[in-house]
Amino acid sequence: MSDRAATPYVLMALAVLCVSMGSILVRLAQAPPLAVSFQRVFLASAILLPFGARDAARSWPGLASQRKLMLAVAGVALALHFATWIASLSYTTVAASVLIVNTAPLFSLALSRAFLGETPGPVVLRAGILALAGAVLIAAGDWTGGAGSLLGIGLALAGAVTLAVYHVTGRGLREALPLKAYILAVWGTAAATLAILAAAGSVELFRYPRRTLLAFVLLALVPTLAGHGLVNRVLRDLPAPTVGLFMLGEPVGASLLAWLLFGEVPAALTMAGGVLVLVALAWVVHGERH
C-alpha cells in the first residue's frame, strides 16, 4: 500500500481520536442539547470563516440549484444529528449513545446505493453485519428497562439516521465545491437550523458560565473543526459506508474516556460489543487495502 493510498486511513484515525472527545465535552458543558449543538457548529463556522470565505465567494454563486438543495439537506441533517444525539446523552450512557449513533453506516449502505449508485463490496457488507452485532450487545449491556433508557436509545438512533444522510449527501457533493466552501455552507445551514429550533423552544444560546463557554469552544475546535473537518476531507477519497464504519472506533475511545472521567464502567456485554466493533474496523481496513 503506497503512502498516498494510506493517507485517508491516517486522517480517519486522527478524526476518530478528535471526535471521541465530543461526548465528553458535551457532558462537561452542562447546557441544554440545542444550545450545545448550536454553539458547536456556530463557533466552528466562525473560526473557519476567515480561511474559507474566498473559496465560498467564488464557488457559491455559480452552484446549480440542485446542488444548493443538497447543501441545505446536508446542513439540516447535520443539525438534527447533533440535536438528537446530544439529547440522547442525557438519558443513556456515553458508551450506548455513541455506539448506537455510529451505526450510521448501516443506513449509509442503503442511501449510497439508492442516491449515489455506490455498491459496497462484500467485505464492507460482512463487516457491517459484525458491527451491527456489536451495537446490539452494547445496547443490551446498557439497557435498564426504563422509559428514559428507551428514549435515549431512540434519540441516538435518530442521530444515526441523520448522520448517514449528512455523510451520503456530502459524498455526493465532493466534486461540486472546494472543501472549505462546502463545510461553511453546511455548518452555516446547521447553525441557522439549530437557532430556529432553539428560538421555537425558548432555549438560551449565549448566557452561560465560563466553564460552559470553554466547553463550547473546545467542542468547536476538537471534534467539530478537526474531527468532522477530517471526515469531510476523507469522504472525497473513500466511500461513505467505509468512512462510517471506520467511525465506529469513536465509541471505543469515548467509552474509555467516560470510564476514566465519569466512572461509567461499561457492562460486560458493552465491552464485548466494543471488541466486535474493533474487529469489524480491522476487517474493513484490511479489505480496502487488498
Features:
0% strand; 13 helices; mainly alpha
SSE arrangement:
Layout lengths: L2 H17 L2 H8 L3 H27 L5 H24 L5 H8 L2 H13 L5 H21 L4 H26 L6 H22 L9 H25 L5 H7 L3 H13 L5 H22 L1
Helix pairs in contact: 1-10, 2-10, 3-4, 3-9, 3-10, 4-8, 4-9, 5-7, 5-8, 5-12, 6-8, 6-11, 7-13
Q: What is the arithmetic mean of pLDDT?
A: 84
User: How many separate domains?
Assistant: 1
Count of helical segments?
13
Largest sheet: none
Strand percentage, roughly?
under 5%
Beta strand count:
0
Measured as a percent range, the helix fraction is over 70%
Structural class by sheet pairing and helices: mainly alpha
For the CA atoms, what is the radius of gyration?
18 Å
- Shape designation: globular
| Low-confidence residue ranges | none
Distance between the termini: 8 Å
Provide structural commentary.
It is a single chain. With 290 residues, this protein is mainly α. It has one domain. It is 80% helix and 0% strand. It is built from 13 helices and no strands. The chain has helices at 3-19, 22-29, 33-59, 65-88, 94-101, 104-116, 122-142, 147-172, 179-200, 210-234, 240-246, 250-262, 268-289. Helix 5 (94-101) packs parallel to helix 8 (147-172). The N and C termini lie close together (8 Å).
Describe the structure in brief.
With 290 residues, this protein is mainly alpha-helical.
